[in-house]
Amino acid sequence: MKDQIVSGILSYGMSGRLFHAPFVDTHQGFDFYAVTERNEKKASGRYPHLISYNSVDELLNDPKIELVIINTPNNTHYEYSKKALEAGKHILVEKPFASTTAEAKEIFDLAKRVNRTVMVYHNRRWDTDFQSVKTAIDSGKLGKLIEVHFRFDRYRREISKKAFKENPLPASGLSFDLGPHLLDQVISLFGKPLKWVKTLGTFRPESLVDDYINLHLIYPEGLNVFLTASLLTANPLPAFVLHGTQGSFIKERTDIQEAQLDKEISPLDTLYGVEPDGSEGVLVTIDSEGNKTSTHHTALKGNYSRLFDAVYWQIRKGEPYPIKEEEILWQLEILEGDSINS
């Protein structure tokens, strides 16, 4: 493809290896050109054509690079976003975009001044399970929504070796790790809530940061949305539960893209993003005569390439990126706001 976007990734850790490199490599709109690897040089084993820089500054100073993917530790996003924009690059920034709304506004304002594009990487809008939720809502079969629950349940008692997640640094803790995923999905569906209550907890032995978060978001017309993430849930509950005036929809967290990418399955593989049999969502509806019907819904094929489609269209064609600036600011306003601590 002509007019490819020359791209560099700031880190080739888990995020770079799974969520970015396979897509900028296989997408026709991108030229996967460089990475930063400060220690072990692993990327060349899979992508022999790459330049592997020893430092972020070396990559940012390369005049050929147009797009920089900022997937470094959370507390560095603000600093590297500024540096990349000042170097004349478009940026795609991992979640959380920043640690405060003030930082986020500064980055968005800087991008406008230097005439560059800021995009935030929220791949889970393209998860199969979340696409199933959207399909159920859009069908109208649930009626008027009353109560919605989204969850991220894990059991990880041990303290992670990733210091930026486990030490009390800006944008650390579970609230800034899984909270942005949950909030982005809900905000993409319902917009900004009228008000909210946030509860944080710290329960793992020797933990220095929150490892539990619950958000109660209140929307117009009585809709209540509950978001929960925990690192000490031994028996996970369904990840998506929706109740409306005419029915309910329940879906497990079943997206397989991360697992496939970890096995080096290409996004171009015909089976990539296809959920296995038995993971369908269940829609239960009740008609006006009280008759109950239960149906199983197969998920649409998931593909994070759609996010990179949107990045390409934004940079090359000026088409608005679907994850909007105001949505990121709403998300951060909720995450940095006061909470009830357990």
Largest sheet: 9 strands, mixed
Total DSSP helices: 11
Largest beta sheet: what is the strand line-up?
A: 14-13-12-11-7-10-9-8-15
Termini separation (Å)? 54 Å
Order of helices and strands: EHEEHEHEHEHEHHHEEEEEHEEHHE
By secondary-structure content and strand pairing, the structural class works out as: alpha/beta
Name the CATH homologous superfamily of the largest domain: Dihydrodipicolinate Reductase, domain 2
CATH top level class name of the largest domain: Alpha Beta
CATH fold title of the largest domain: Dihydrodipicolinate Reductase, domain 2
Count of individual beta strands:
15
β-strand percent reads: 15-25%
Number of self-contained structural domains = 2
Tell me the CATH architecture of the largest domain.
2-Layer Sandwich
Shape estimate = globular
**Mean pLDDT rating:** 96
Q: How would you characterize this protein structure?
A:
This protein has 342 residues and is an alpha/beta fold. It has two domains: 5-121 and 306-321, NAD(P)-binding Rossmann-like Domain (Rossmann fold, 3-Layer(aba) Sandwich), CATH 3.40.50; 124-302, Dihydrodipicolinate Reductase, domain 2. It contains eleven helices and 15 strands. It has helices at 14-26, 56-60, 77-86, 101-114, 128-138, 163-166, 174-177, 179-190, 257-262, 305-317, 325-336, and strands at 5-9, 30-36, 51-53, 67-70, 90-94, 118-121, 145-153, 195-201, 212-218, 224-230, 240-244, 247-251, 281-286, 292-297, 340-341. The strands form two sheets. The chain has a nine-stranded mixed sheet, covered by helices on one side. A six-stranded parallel sheet has the order 3-2-1-4-5-6, with helices on both faces. A hairpin with a 2-residue loop joins strand 11 and strand 12. Helix 3 (77-86) runs parallel beside helix 4, helix 4 runs antiparallel to helix 11 (325-336) and helix 8 packs across helix 11. The radius of gyration is 21 Å and the shape is globular. The model has no long low-confidence stretch (mean pLDDT 96).
